[in-house]
Structure formats: C-alpha cells, structure tokens
Amino acid sequence: MGQRRSGKSSISSVVFHKLPPNETLFLESTARIQKDSLNSFMEFQVWDFPGQIDVFDNPSFPFDMDAIFGEIGALIWVIDAQDDYLEAVARLNATILHLQRSYQHINIEVFIHKVDGLSDDYKLDIQRDITIRIQDELSDQGVENAPVNFHLTSIYNHSIFEAFSKVIQKLIPRLGQLEAMLTNLCRTCRFEKAYLFDVNTKIYIATDSTPEDMASYEICSDYVDVIIDFTEVYGSWQRTPEWRKRLEGPPWEQKLEDQVACEWAESGMVLADAQRPIMLREVDRFLALVAIMKEGSYEKMPQINMNVDVVVKGLTEFFEITKSKMTPTAVPGGVTAVNGNGVVGNGH
Ligand SMILES: Nc1nc2c(ncn2[C@@H]2O[C@H](COP(=O)(O)OP(=O)(O)OP(=O)(O)O)[C@@H](O)[C@H]2O)c(=O)[nH]1
C-alpha cells in the first residue's frame, strides 16, 4: 500500500517477475487491487493496492476488512523518499491505528523507497524524520510498541531484495532453527557467510548469525543468477546415446548417474582477486544454499560436501514439517524454478 506513483507495482514486478528496473518507467497506474500468487517454498500472495484508493475511508465501495486483513502476515507501506511525504505519513498513521484495533498480528513494514540518488546522510535524515513522525502520532493516540519496521529501498540496487528478505523471514515459523543450522554449518566448514535463497526471487530466507553484510549478499545473489542462467541454457542438454556410452565406458566403467556427486545442482567458483571460493547447492526446486568460504578452503571440498549433505537433508525435513504451519501472506512471482534434476525450467 502507499500513495500513487510511490513505486508499489515496480517493486512487485522487479522482485517477483524479474522486470528490469528501467522498464518500470512504462508501468501503468494500478486501477484495482492486483492479487498475485506464487507457489514457492511457501505459498505467497502479493496484493498491490491502487494508490488512489483508501480502503478505510471509501463510503461508496466499502471493503470487507476481514477478507483483506484477516489472513495477511505483513503489510508493506511504500513511501516515495524523493517526493513530499507528509501526506503519505499521515495515511500510514491512520492505517496503523486502524490495524492496531483489530489486526494486531500484522507486521507493518515501511519501505522508504527510491533512495537511489540520495546521499547517505540525507537518507538517514529522512528515515529519522519519518520514524519520529509515526512514533509521535502513535503515542499521542495511546498506541505503544506497534510492530512497525523501516527499510531504505530502491529497485536500482539489492536493497529491495534485502528488505523483502527481512519481511519474509519474520513470517517463517521457527526461523531460529534454520539460522542455527546455518550457523553450525559455517562453524564446521569454516564458511564466512551462508544464505538460504529462494531461487525464484533471490530473497534470502535465512542466514547464519554473523553480522549482516550487504556485499556478501550481493555476490551470493548474483551467483544464483549466474547459475540459473547457465542451467537454463545448458540444463536441458540431452546427451546422444553414443556420447553417453563413451562417458560410461573406460576408464570410468560406471553409469553416469553414479558418477555425479549428488543428484541436485551444485556449483563452486573461486574468485581470483579475493581467493574466497563460493559454493552453491540446490536444496529443492525452490531453495538453494549459497556460502562464501574462507581463503584456501577449496582443498577441503570433500569434507565440506559431506557436511553440506547433512544440512541439506535437515533443511528438507524442516520444510516438510513446517510447510503446513506457514502463514499464507504478502507476495508472488511465477518465474523460473530449479526442478528436481538440477535443471532450471519455467513454471512449477
Ligand atoms: N528512482 C526510482 N524510481 C522508481 C523506483 N521504484 C519505482 N520508481 C518509479 O516510480 C514510478 C511509479 O512507479 P509505480 O510502480 O507505477 O507506482 P505505484 O505505486 O504502483 O503507482 P499506482 O499504481 O498509481 O498506485 C515509475 O516511473 C517507476 O519507474 C526506485 O526505486 N527509484
């Protein structure tokens, strides 16, 4: 939700439909509520509300509030940081007060958006100003501790994916267990940082307990892109029977399936300048584990693979158990997915 032209449809199109940011210039204004569903590691729906509609103050078309807010887990409010934001903040305040009365379970995530082109100091000033205006108004109305969080975002860099990652993480039951698994893996394998990615959207749904680091997120997320593009081109490559016979003949004398280390997609790469290998391992058709290793740890790949195997099994079980408990919520997609054979294909 948010004012007209604040960037709502652009965010949804860039994150969930891989629209290049420049092409959002040609998006038309949203006239009615757009619902978008994605069957990913959890079932998402994104509802894009037209900026000109105020659902709480629309006497001619009263909305069914329970149908809209009864089941959602998070409400994202987009504020255009490059425009006068006083009216947007006033509408956001009114919305929070409405939600606090009947739907306190909803996390309110404020995206202070279009911060590209603004200096770091100015961004922080705006964030401080908006936070104070909202907190003051809420405490004047007697509302304390409302679940409101702020994110500085832009579709022109990774900040929008990072912010969405944080929003989604809050909706995952037992996130702490996922994080503990990744933290243990990092300790055992001496990884610097590990992320569990939703490959469709490049949102990371969990990471280990070391401090957040935008640079590692960016490199891992770009790596997911590279592998997906590569697999899209070569993944469906069928070997001819003669070629297969040669590969299975001497000196290997083994069926191709038995020669590969694992049935899923896996990949490793060493960056020449940093000397730090990056590894990717598919968990299922929606999720991939990506980790940045310490310098020189490439020789230990066999042990690392064994540990990663165990964690991948654990993650698979985790999602089987928690799938039924996942909150259906805010967001969508419908793009490429890695299927069970490590091949990227369209649809699910
Ligand atoms: N500089 C900059 N421009 C952006 C960003 N995100 C969106 N825009 C631009 O903002 C304009 C409006 O974007 P929309 O996504 O159509 O806005 P909306 O909130 O969906 O608008 P309504 O459908 O009218 O409610 C477009 O020209 C986008 O290119 C951003 O992060 N930075």
From TrEMBL:
Gene Ontology terms, MF aspect: GTP binding; GTPase activity
GO cellular component, one term: Gtr1-Gtr2 GTPase complex
Gene3D superfamilies with a match to the protein in the record: 3.30.450.190, P-loop containing nucleotide triphosphate hydrolases
GO annotation terms (biological process): cellular response to starvation; negative regulation of autophagy; positive regulation of TORC1 signaling
Record localization: Endomembrane system
Catalytic activity: GTP + H2O = GDP + phosphate + H(+)
UniProt keyword terms in alphabetical order: GTP-binding, Hydrolase, Membrane, Nucleotide-binding
InterPro entries: Gtr1_RagA (IPR006762), P-loop_NTPase (IPR027417), RagC/D (IPR039400)
Entries under Pfam families matching the protein: Gtr1_RagA
Subunit structure: Component of the GSE complex.
Function: GTPase involved in activation of the TORC1 signaling pathway, which promotes growth and represses autophagy in nutrient-rich conditions.
Family of this protein: Belongs to the GTR/RAG GTP-binding protein family.
Protein name: GTP-binding protein
